[in-house]
Amino acid sequence: MKLKGITDVFFDLDHTLWDFDRNSALTFQKIFKINNLNVDYNKFLREYVPINQNYWKLFREGKVEKEALRFGRLNDAFNAIHFSVNPDVIQKLSNDYIEHLSSFNYLFDNTIAILDYLNPNFNLHIITNGFDKVQQKKIENSKISTYFKTVTNSEMVGVKKPDPKIFYHAIQLAGTTVEQSVMIGDNFEADILGAHNIGMEAIYINATDKTKRENHKRINDLIDLKQFL
């Protein structure tokens, strides 16, 4: 069923449009080679991915700062695979990761197709918890910047999704209203509940979450947005 009265569509970036896991994995391959680090790449990633997700949850909740996130997720992953790395090397890897992450810019299937479909009839925007300079590079290097009228990030506002302030800031920046807006994202807590908490429509995109999300609009692929918009 089509949503009525929507003029503005807000997207999350990582894991929604920008294929974070794929680009991140390629970045680790690159920086391990740069730093001559002979580590089992697949073994590292198996530990790193859930550790990174947990650090981002703590970051959203204000329990860790940016630098602690960047260092801790690597340090904990190396400890989990019992691979000894000097703290100075971990710090360099952390910096190299941020520097090279936006050099890989795979988007999810149908990202361009759905942006082309929506662009003529809706104002498109981004709300992201990612860091300002990194996120901007991702958007520019993946060649999707021209689609979006505004980009709101957590560093700009000083709070992170699901805090209502970041949603209100994005809506004000876009010059629209809650009633005319819809949020699309992969994180149920940050994107979907965050939007619903201010009375904003939301569409959950996540093919891997097997939890039943009753009374919530849900899709598995971006192209399926056509049923709502």
Automatic annotation (TrEMBL):
> Cross-referenced SUPFAM superfamilies, in alphabetical order?
HAD-like (SSF56784)
Q: Which Pfam families match?
A: HAD_2 (PF13419)
The record's annotation in InterPro entries points to: HAD-like_sf, HAD-SF_hydro_IA, HAD-SF_hydro_IA_YjjG/PynA, HAD_2, HAD_sf, PGP-like_dom2, Pyrimidine_5'-ntase_YjjG
MF GO annotations = 5'-nucleotidase activity
Gene3D superfamilies according to UniProt: HAD superfamily/HAD-like, Putative phosphatase, domain 2
NCBIfam families cross-referenced by the UniProt entry: HAD-SF-IA-v1, YjjG_YfnB
Which protein is depicted?
YjjG family noncanonical pyrimidine nucleotidase
